[in-house]
Amino acid sequence: MKIARLPLARLTTLGVGGEAEVWTVETLADLVQATQAPYRVLGNGSNLLVSDAGVPERVIRLSGEFAEWNPDLSGWVGAGALVPSLLQASARLGLSGLEGLHGVPAQVGGAVKMNAGTRFGEMADALEVVELFHDGRLHHFGPAELGFRYRHSGLPEGSIVTRVKLKLTPSSEEAVRARIALVDAARKGQPKKKSAGCAFKNPPGDSAGRLIDVKGLKGTTVGKAMISLEHGNFLVNLGGATAAEMYALIRKVQSVLPLEVEWEIWGEVTPAEAEVSR
Ligand SMILES: Cc1cc2nc3c(=O)[nH]c(=O)nc-3n(C[C@H](O)[C@H](O)[C@H](O)COP(=O)(O)OP(=O)(O)OC[C@H]3O[C@@H](n4cnc5c(N)ncnc54)[C@H](O)[C@@H]3O)c2cc1C
Predict the structure, then answer these.
(1) Rounded CA gap, 90 and 84, in Å?
(2) How far is ligand 1, taken at its centre, from the CA of residue 275, in Å?
(3) pLDDT tens column, 169-195
């Protein structure tokens, strides 16, 4: 196990956030020790806006046995494994089930927690068993027991996904790659700059990106935080943005549209005083 104070900006895709005590756990004994004080679990940090002051809780990262998986994707897959790596392996093996997650830069644990996915499929569809660490021991659940719905799971409070068994269907490499290409085509136009994916939840039957576009908000900046010109629901870090700047941008959007934030906010974040410009 490694314990170090690290800037969370380095461990999140948005690239903002102050320091925290990061516990990188490799075994169940590590996990038991790490969870003896208040903690948060970090996946690949791709859905997080972390305060500039960091967070006071321990931040647990899964490594070692929690990131292992068999090359043929049989048996247990560690929750710290990266979804894009598993998807590539499934394509080579001609196993179908993960294609809907193409382009989602999550770890398995984060993808389970958020029920990540696209209109082509979501994490819950590809699960047979989920192993959770909760109340000091391991529990096993079928997906029907975990309250999955659109971008949401009902994992018990404080539980940590440790491993999963995937439910994949034999297909062919060609067919799997064709489905990945379909998802890829639908993702065209999404910005490459640092982000945490879509910042706002889509309201029923509409798209937050479209609404932001219609209001003429694309290109709005606060310091180094910008509403992407390519996609209105992507708030991007132009390099060196602060959490306060990102949050000021969120509030700017919310001052004209009743949109709910999709990102998870860690710690105290207040909007920057910085000038909003276009
Ligand atoms: C470029 C880009 C594109 C994206 N596209 C999509 C998309 O198409 N669809 C989509 O759904 N999302 C998308 N996202 C958002 C993001 O990838 C997902 O929300 C993803 O599920 C987050 O996983 P993560 O491992 O990064 O988790 P993190 O962001 O690190 O954490 C998210 C939540 O999961 C919890 N968590 C993480 N690991 C565990 C664990 N082992 N056990 C319990 N809880 C855990 C965290 O505590 C936190 O509550 C995108 C993000 C980016 C940057």
Answers:
(1) 10
(2) 30
(3) 999 999 999 999 999 999 998 999 999
Query: Rounded to an integer, what distance in angstroms lies between the CA atom of residue 56 and that of residue 47?
Result: 19
Nearest atom in ligand 1 to 44's CA: 26
Is the distance from CB of 58 to CB of 30 less than 8 angstroms? no
Give me the half-sphere count of Cα atoms (radius 13 Å) on the Cβ side of residue 231.
19
Give yes or no for residue 274 having a pLDDT over 80.
no
**Nearest 5°: phi and psi at 47?**
-135, 25
Q: Using the mean position of ligand 1's atoms as its centre, give its distance from the Cα of residue 102 in Å.
A: 13
Q: Measured between alpha carbons, how far is 145 from 64 in angstroms, rounded to an integer?
A: 28
Residue in this structure with the two tokens 């700047």, named with its chain if needed: 245
Identify whether residues 96 and 158 lie together within a single domain. yes
pLDDT recorded at residue 189: 85
Percent of the chain with pLDDT over 90: 95
Question: Which residues form the catalytic set?
Answer: 151, 198
Among the residues of the chain, which ranges form H helices? Answer: 28-34, 83-93, 108-114, 173-187, 208-214, 243-254
CA 55 to chain centre: 18
Mean pLDDT of all residues belonging to the chain: 96
Q: Looking at 163, 185, 207, which one is the last position of a domain?
A: 185
Q: Whose CA is nearest to atom 5 of ligand 1?
A: 104
Number of domains in the chain: 3
